[in-house]
Structures
1.
Amino acid sequence: MTGHDDAFSESVAALALGVLPEAEAREVAGHVRGCAACRSEYAELRSAADLVGFAAEFRPGELDEVSATRLKSRVMRAVRADAAAVSPAPGAVRAPRTASGGWPLYAAAAALVLAVLAAGSAVSLRNENAADRERIAVLERQSALQSSVLAQIVAPGAKHFPVASGEVIETNGRILLAFSHLAPAPAGKVYQAWTLARGATAVAPSITFAPDAAGNAVVELPQGAANLAAVAVSVEPPGGSKTPTSKPTFVRALS
Amino acid sequence: MERVRERDVAAFENIYDAYHRLVYGIAFKMLKDAMAAEDLTQAVFLKVWSTPDAFAAGNFGAWIARVTRNRALDTLRSRSLRVEADMPADIPLEGSLDDDVLANIDAERVRAALASLPDDQRGPIELGFFGGVTHEEIARRTATPLGTVKTRIRAGLRKMRAQLDASVAR
């Protein structure tokens, strides 16, 4: 136990709100752990800080009903499919459950895993509407490939790097891009991935791709993860470009 | 949550109904994009379903708000074309941080508590929470000395806490 130090008093509140740079946060947290007075103030202010988000809650009726219904349908469909998949079909991949915090999957990949489970076991979704049946048909055609890819996504040790509408996944020496609700590329265009090798000053062209009707896309880059420093995606003409012709939709460092 | 751990879909749906406006609200305020907010809301609730043990005990609303904010910060970072330093991590301390006194607080009382703060205290708190920026960035954006920003955040959170305690006691 260390003594109270007034120099940390102001920083305890900033720590509680989560606005300290990482190095300073660690220093202040180190003091708080050993100082009863600061620990007490931290606990009190942290409880208040965590509630700040409540101010953003939509009031009943403020949320667009169509969007709210669609969103709930998405979530509940994925959950019911997972709950129904007691015995996954051969080759299907079950989302791992961890004992504590952390993100074993990013949500879109999780939804895709759950959707493939649903397609494989074909239990609950078959009885839903025509749009669902069409989506199931697409998923079933893709399921063999996706089972392999998704096994890589959920593999222990896979690194997940969030990007807009998805994430970059480094797993077993491979690089995957996984998206959910990715907007279609503009008419007559496709998405193209780019890779930046460590020490390189220019990106190298990689695979082109387009999301499916639901905005899902999971692709593997042929380059592999070795010696890659970053991955980017831009919108390009069909067939791809040798150098980017548009501003990247994202650039993600693999670190 | 105990029933969710037992894979009870109906229990999960009750939690969804109770908290989706909170999760979506935080996501929308931070990301300023309806579709991205929907994706994030789905992500948060699938986390609740797939890893229910991530919530140990305490104030579930505060926990899911914290999870939502952290996930939104990840998304905000991923939107940036330049590589940024990590935002401060959640630093665990010994013992529970959750406060039973505020376990059943509602959004209206939080809004009232925030509204009671002077602008120069409420502004840095909201910018820090929803903007996901450091106190140094808050100081820069508001053209205020760093020490003053820290003082105002502390005074604002203490006052907000007092207001919430008083509203619960009434």
Note: Strands of chain A lie at 159-163, 166-171, 174-179, 190-197, 204-209, 217-221, 228-236, 250-253.
2.
Amino acid sequence: METKLDKIDIAVIRALQKDARASFAAIAKSCSVSVDTISKRFKKIEAAGVARGTTILLNPKSFACDCVASFGIRTDFSHIDKVLQFLKKMPDIVFSTQTMGRHSIFAVAIVKNVTVLSQVKEVIKGHPMVREVTTSIWINDILLCPENFDLPTGEEKPIG
Amino acid sequence: MDKIDLYIIETLSRNARTSFRQIAIALDVSPDTIIDRYNALQEKGIIRGSTIVLNPKEIGYSAMAVFMIDISPAEDNKSRFDSSVIVEKLIKMRNIIVASKTVGDHDLLAIGVVKDFQHLFEVRDEIAAIPGVKDMEVSFWSEITELCPKYFVI
């Protein structure tokens, strides 16, 4: 499913991607429309499910979380759901999904240090339906580029 | 960080557009206090910015993929590839939303959004064409994952 967006919608999204606190007045000015239009468009974008709201980007290191790692997990095929449910209950796992490819599940953990990471891995490995776990520790400068994809009208530069 | 800082962080995580006045009223302090605290949190790098949380399915992306990349080993010092340069190239690629050096199974990791199978292959080929990329493993998923929610922000 895809929601059709026009120029103004895209201007709103692009502005808020860079700074969710951007003033609607400034966006309105750049599009030469009224502030009211921008505020209506923002509500429309949320109502259509294109956006689930706004959030701030935090640095986990400020919260004594120094170690970010991802796990590739292989499980018995019939038990992927059970293992996923198990992972979703673990507080250190911030993201987990079923995948196609070499692993059955891809999960990301944010923890205090490597010792804790090792404990998390042991817990995952200890699950009776888990066959194999590979760990990758993410090293510094993990860069997030939220503006780095196209929006449906395809006004942006094409891929490649 | 004290109670006020934590309250600001919690409130803005749920809705980054919450007015500072509203937060000030909830905490019974002046709006200026909140503005000062917010600026301090940004200066200290605790808050790195704010963004809109998009649902990729609604804007034409049906899947996400993780690319686990191996870099060619050095044959001699001259031909060594700098992994930082490759990470830089990865983040400049369209459709890549996270990239990092890793220790473990592979050398680099990138997560991207893709429209369909063909697009997945295109993105893979584009990564494979970066000088120094030796090998790559791809896993993908189609479960709804919001773009740049808290957990991707590092």
Note: The mean pLDDT of chain A is 83.
